[in-house]
Amino acid sequence: MRFWQRQLPLYIGTRYSFSRQRTRFIGVVSMVSLLGMAIGVASLIVVLSVMNGFGGELRDRILTLVSHAEIRAETGDLEAWSELTDTLQENPSIVGFAPFIETKVLLASQRQVAGAQLVAIDPRLESAVSAVADNMLAGKFSALEEQRYGIVLGSLLARGLGLNLGDSVEVTVPRLTLTPLGAYPRTKRFEVVGVFSVGAQLDSNRAYIALGAGQKLLSLGDAVHGLRLQFADLYAAPRLSRDIAEELGPGFQVRDWEQTQRSLFSAVRMEKTMITVLLMSVVAVAAFNIVSTLTMAITEKRGDIAVLRTMGISARSVMAIFMAQGLVLASVGVAVGALVGVLLALNISEAVALLEQLFGFKVFDPQVYFISNLPADLQWRDVLLIVGSALLLSLLATLVPAWRATRIAPAEVLRYG
């Protein structure tokens, strides 16, 4: 008997949720609450999946050129980097390393001037830490070995400067050359030997030259600014970087890709958080619509409540009945929204492609954007978080009206009808 007593509030609450005896207005309000919850949950799942897709696409494209970790000297340039590579070769977690020099420069063609990030590398070692050689639009990355004063430009940077293969570009570095006539900016003319494209912002501000040319241009001798590292596991980079820093000891600074690109990925995470908060307000509005539904339902069921109380149902059970009614409505809406959201997130690229084909437009024009389709990465952790948050908001929304149901005096209701 105790089992049925415990299940009775859930049974009655479920019956009230789908009862056909309620007024049409209460039915409409219930349906609006259910649809609002479904739309809010589905929207959150789809939007967060797209945000995850964009974040992953951005990470993969940037890490095409950015290494998993960097080693720099804590003060000054890295002098004895050749000896350091002997130590790194003994570490089985490191699959590649390459020296680099980087600085901000001005690039000047005959028609335009643009700022850029100039990176001097060893073309033979760079392929172990970067995929730029696999993303060439014109020329060869290995031409930097043959042409000492050759330069490889990002596609958007080359287009902005109006440069093609074989053209010359003047590189000005932030160093001064002292002459009897005064101090002059240090400049050098380079020949364009290649153009690359990775489909990211780096195409508009990155240029590569040979390591020897960079050392001479910046008067570094045999020194470099640091070493780039590549690990077998990208996501193990933070842990492995800390291990390498402890192994090398003081005098060296080891930073992983999460640190070198912190500002960019922090901005992406912040954007995702803000969109989540904004869309969660849709779920919150739908959840608190349950308050209206339950308030009207309680007013309609005053007679039922009075009868149940006179039959011995406790105030706690009455409260559980209407909490169950609200949660059943919310659960149906959350379930429908989760199902629709997951299906849309898994097929968003195909759905967008179908719409583009039907209506003859492009959501992402490849001539304007770095991507041509809508990426999506459905993470079940996000789905569980959304479903759990929606149900929690719904539970909180049922508390006040359910508590008010316990304040109804049975004698007054039965006496005055």
Automatic annotation (TrEMBL):
Subcellular location: Cell membrane
Membrane association type: Multi-pass membrane protein
Recorded coiled-coil stretches: none
Spans traversing the lipid bilayer: 25-51, 274-298, 319-346, 383-403
Residue ranges annotated for the MacB-like periplasmic core domain, each copy included: 30-236
Domain ABC3 transporter permease C-terminal: 278-410
UniProt keyword Transport, yes or no: yes
Taxonomic superkingdom: Bacteria
Pfam families referenced in this protein's UniProt entry, alphabetically: FtsX (PF02687), MacB_PCD (PF12704)
Record keywords, A-Z: Cell membrane, Lipoprotein, Membrane, Transmembrane, Transmembrane helix, Transport
Keyword Methyltransferase set for record: no
Matches recorded under NCBIfam families: lolCE (TIGR02212)
Family under the similarity heading: Belongs to the ABC-4 integral membrane protein family. LolC/E subfamily.
Name recorded for this polypeptide: Lipoprotein-releasing ABC transporter permease subunit
Species whose genome carries this gene: Candidatus Litorirhabdus singularis
Lineage: Bacteria, Pseudomonadati, Pseudomonadota, Gammaproteobacteria, Cellvibrionales
